[in-house]
Design brief:
Nitrilase/N-carbamoyl-D-aminoacid amidohydrolase, 8 helices, about 25% helix, about 30% strand, 14 strands, alpha/beta, six-stranded mixed β-sheet
Length: about 270
Amino acid sequence: MGIKIGSVQFEPLFGEVDRNLELAGSLIMKSDADLLVLPELFNTGYVFASKDEAIALSEQIPQGRTTQKLCDVAKETGTFIVGGLAEKSTDGIFNSAVLVSPDGYVGRYRKVHLFFEEKLWFDPGDEGFRVYDIGVCKVGIMICFDWFFPESMRALSLMGADVICHPANLVLPFCQDAMKTRCIENHVFAITANRTGTESREGKSLQFTGRSQIIGPDGRIICRAGEDSQEAGTAEIDVKSARDKKINIHNHLFDDRRPDYYGELVDC
């Protein structure tokens, strides 16, 4: 089952939501992918200066303009889209991602593992990991720092995900290479959509690493963007290759697990 997947990489400007939405939309329009992933907080930028600022730039899901814009673009292009945004809810303010389809809103994910000052602005995700069957494949969603915890991708893979959609604002130098291991140990595809540029506000500055990528179940880099490029990088994949968990004739990635000996993972 061949499908085209990809990541959208660009430099959001902080607080310029209209501009960021239009730029993201134009990059999606130039692609013919079946599934595209946008960066974390692609519509607002990342370096918040206060909780009030995070609240002001957050939106309801799915009623907010960002989710509605993505729904419109998905309908026009026939593309499934995953994108990160600040979510305003009666439950709190979350660093979230939405999944939309050509038929409209599908679902959301609230970031479980918050990084650095995100803990000052956002509430930790409270809905766990989910997998969505979009017909052409099954997708799981995690956001940026979630990659640091192997349990994130393992949970999504055990739930049946073929493709892990990974909106990110990466500043640490490890993720792109570490995702090779994450894909090998779960035998899945992963799309990491990172942003580019430097964001400096209120005396704080972060340099983002770009290099958005698609990694295959064998850990191979299928597609990788440059550090500063603005692009929608895409590749054709065979979903069936993520569903074969056999390592050799005697070993099966999931059947050989011994969860009765893994209690320390959740008890500690």
